[in-house]
Design a protein that fits this description.
about 350 residues; alpha/beta; Arc Repressor Mutant, subunit A; Rossmann fold; 16 strands; 10 helices; 2 domains
């Protein structure tokens, strides 16, 4: 009996199959008028796995040079999510986590977890290349099933190890990114670690389709001389782009300590010096303040910019003769005479 006869016999013995094939699915849109009005549909609020950093059910890219602490950051994030604690000072929603590692040996991962104070993973998993059955690649049906079953956070370390596509080919990488999107659609929150190119100013390596396909994208840079890291959000569909400056303190704190960016710190130091100049002689003109600030090692251009930036918060400005700007401490009485 051939296949056609088999199907014919099946439909004779199970006539309801034909009825089911013809029955419309309630989710299928067949006409113009059946397309729902987006403005009257229930609004879906953004949920966060890491507040303001990792949206739930999204695909996130974290790119950096070798030695930029990408894996350290990912493991610290794992800790925050597993424990419901914090990551970079942001609250984390407790969730199941599966860390898929084809980059690091078992001994390195265990040592780093110990330095981060992770004594137990609970029912969370790290699936590494050291196992007889190594971590599955992107597109593996097992990951889709896990995504549907547990709605976990899936962290891939690193992207290039989990596919065979040419990362510079938009056509090939679009298929890889579609597989990552399928995991998110199935209920997972996907985070992929990736590398940066040697080219100055580039955020990540490979096809533009990589960044085009993700919901949020971060680039981490290490300043070895200053001993700090900068996490730059260069794409987000949920919030405005931002930067976080941090200091690795894995020996004492077992964490990444968020600090002011060097530019912010420098501006505040300049503001402190200008504030002292103004308090020493209230009512000085802008040129006098700038000249005095220069003696305190504040460059003229910086002094003028800081005077404008902190006006109203560190000092107040009043108009004097010939419409000159005169500077006073905020707490100085209005009767203080200006200097000309």
């Amino acid at each position: 009996m051939n296949n056609q006869e088999n199907w014919a016999q099946l439909f004779v013995s199970e006539p309801d199959l034909l009825a089911r094939l013809d029955a419309p699915t309630k989710d299928v849109i067949r006409t113009w008028d059946e397309v729902p009005d987006i403005l009257t549909m229930p609004a879906v609020s953004i949920e966060w796995i890491v507040d303001g950093i990792i949206p739930k059910g999204s695909v996130t890219l974290l790119a950096g040079d070798p030695g930029s602490y990408k894996t350290w950051l990912a493991l610290a994030m794992l800790r925050g999510i597993v424990t419901g604690g914090k990551f970079l000072g942001r609250g984390c929603t407790p969730s199941n986590v599966m860390y898929l590692d084809r980059e690091n040996p078992q001994s390195v991962v265990r040592d780093r977890l110990a330095m981060l104070g992770m004594e137990s993973l609970g029912n969370n998993k790290i699936w590494g290349g050291w196992l007889p059955d190594p971590a599955p690649g992107i597109g593996d049906a097992r990951l889709v099933e896990m995504a549907r079953e547990r709605h976990p956070v899936l962290i891939f370390d690193s992207l290039i190890r989990f596919h065979r596509a040419d990362e510079n080919s938009a056509t090939e990488m679009s298929e890889v990114m579609q597989d990552l999107r399928a995991l998110a659609n199935a209920g997972a929150t996907v985070i992929v670690l990736h590398h940066k190119p040697k080219a100055e100013g580039a955020h990540y390596r490979g096809s533009s389709d990589i960044a085009g396909a993700v919901d949020t994208a971060y680039s981490v840079a290490r300043d070895r001389q200053a001993g700090i890291l900068t996490l730059d959000c260069f794409k987000s569909r949920f919030v405005e782009e931002f930067s976080i400056t941090m200091r690795p303190d894995l020996g004492d704190e077992g964490d990444f300590v968020v600090v002011d960016a060097p530019k912010v710190t420098t501006a505040r130091e300049h503001a402190d010096k200008l504030d002292q100049v103004i308090r020493n002689r209230p009512g000085q003109t802008q040129e006098t303040v700038v000249a005095e600030a220069k003696k305190a090692s504040v460059p003229i251009g910086k002094a003028r910019a800081v005077l404008q930036e902190f006006a109203g918060t560190r000092w107040r400005v009043e108009k004097g003769p010939k419409n000159a700007n005169l500077y006073f401490p905020l707490d100085a009485p209005q009767t203080v005479k200006f200097e000309v």
